[in-house]
Amino acid sequence: MGYRLSDNERAQAMNALGSHFAEGRLTLAEYEERVQKVAEAVTDDEVAQLFRDLPEQSYTVSEIEEYHRKSSHPKAGILGLSMVGAFVGLATTTGALDFVFLTIPVVVFILLYVMKIGPDEWHMPSARQLQRERVRELTYKQKLLALEQKRSDQERMRALKNRALGAAENFLGRD
Fold it and tell me: What residue intervals traverse the membrane (predicted)?
């Protein structure tokens, strides 16, 4: 028996079903039925059964490269390395050389995890990271669309009010 699902995991499963529906792998009836089952699911095993006949989501090379580019922070790495260098210089001039060896793990961490130095396979994003990035981008796009819709609605309301005021002025001016 699997673990209990969170609301966030249910939402992710529904989003994944939506992607499969959009790609034509599910009919509307199948999509609606599976979404209903996800909503009623208690454990991850119940949700996993709904995806058995569907392929795992794939990611484009450009998505992977974009994630890798966004996750690399060379400026922060250079800053961190310069701070470590300053610490080593200070320790060397004061004679506290014992602390210099403590900086080696810090340097390795900065090189590997901040600057992403090393073979590409070390820094390949997981499917979960890529999915999070997709969801983040979709959420951002939805917010932008909602803002544009709101602006458009406000502009229409202004135009409608102006027309109504113009009609009222014309009506009152004819008397």
Answer: 76-93, 99-118
